[in-house]
Amino acid sequence: WNDSSGERLVEINTGRNIEQIEVLAPGDRLLMVEKVGRYRGARIWSVETGQRLCSLWDGAFNLGFPSITAVAADGRTIYGEYEETKLSIMYDASSCRMRYGMVCPIEKAYIDAGETFAWITDEGGVDTLGISTHERRLGILHGCRSRFAALLPFPDGERLATFDDRSVVVWNLTSGEELLTLRHTLEYVLKAAAVSPDGNLL
Q1: Of the candidates 45, 49, 15, which has an alpha carbon nearest to the alpha carbon of residue 30?
Q2: Which end of the chain is less crowded, N or C, counting CB atoms within 10 A of the terminal residue's CB?
């Protein structure tokens, strides 16, 4: 739809049950996660023409496609995870080909435009992976007081914020240094946080 006029621009009929929709930057493609029986699949569609561009089917594992849990800020990389096997796979959003796969427990994840993949481990720490270099860094964030609720990337790709129910911490993503800590002692519990597009507000 055109958000100004309300005019319907294009209609996409996948013929399947749609479970999730993600807009891929710069806004010209849609990623749709579809369910067929007990299996999931994902396809990328053109917003302009409504045509299917490519399919993310993972028949080799006979498990369907995993749940989409992160999409890169530049729309180039898609990450999904098989919940039962903890198999994590990253795909190239242009070719729909697998870029990298690994097996590890992952709770929350994000991919920045600099192709850094970061995730919260089941121990409550944060690990990172260079998607192109496959360089994995373990436990880059130290001094964790409790389990993180989410990861909040800054647009500069150099900082990362984490938050739990009582505090927000800003980290240097390269060195793991704690740059800023905001805590409160009130009775309410912190449920959500966000970083502004310019990175100046939290």
Answers
A1: 45
A2: N
> Rounded to an integer, what distance in angstroms lies between the CA atom of residue 22 and that of residue 70?
10
The token duo for 93 is 């959003």
pTM of the model: 0.63
As a whole number of angstroms, the distance between CA 28 and CA 49 comes to 10
Sign, CA torsion 136/141/103/98:
negative
The contacts of residue 77 (CB under 8 Å, 6+ apart) are 71, 90, 91, 92, 93, 99, 111, 115, 117, 131
How confident is the model over 56-91, as pLDDT tens digits? 765 444 455 566 777 877 788 887 776 666 667 778
pLDDT of res. 60 = 44
Q: What angle do CA 189, 195, 196 make, to 5 degrees?
A: 130
